[in-house]
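A further point concerns the way the authors explain their paired sequence and structure data. An entry of this sort, consisting of the sequence and the corresponding backbone structure tokens, reads as follows:
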Amino acid sequence: MTLQLGYLTLTLAVCILLIYFGFTTINKSYDEPTRKRKKTILVLSIILWQVYLGIVGSTEFILSYSFPPRFAITMIIPAFIFTGVFVYRNRNKAWLLNLPTKQVFFFQSFRILVESLFVASVGAGILHKEASIEGYNFDMVYALTVPFVGLIAFSRQSSNLKLIRFWNYLGLVVLASVIFVFMTSIYAPELYGADKPLLPLEAITYPYGLVAGCLMPVAVFMHVLSIAQLNRILRN
């Protein structure tokens, strides 16, 4: 129960931060009537997605090792499609420049807590060690570098935005490697010396499935959004 509470609490904190970033950007970008509408859409979208994840993650439909993975089809892919469409459609919008650049980058430090939960999940038998820092998941290492890189990049009078952009790309590469570890632990367990899937099905049920359906996609979304903003700034 304590471990489940940890996933729920972290997800709640991440959603609150998303709302904070959204409200900050909206307040700087729109007039009062538009602000209300945009804020309502933002909050309702986050709430509805959480309700959806709760419903899907509590059904037996996703409890399968069949290919393609049902949890990816219902949780990860829709979030990735949204990220791609949303950022592409808004890449030239003026509001993008009002996004809090520093806070968005430092936000990626939340992955330290995600990986800490992974370590606790290994001890509880929810995850296999290969999916944590004890194995081939180096996301915590990346997350630990974020505060230091941010301090270096933003400490000068002229911020080193190219360094921040590069670190965003690096973060996406690290996330891709984590996804690779999770997928191969299910569909190619022989890579890890096993003859059956290493990821327990319990790991994709609610609330553990919040990693796949919310926490990881949010990290990807914020990376891509930050890159779009930095590209716009560096072009000017």
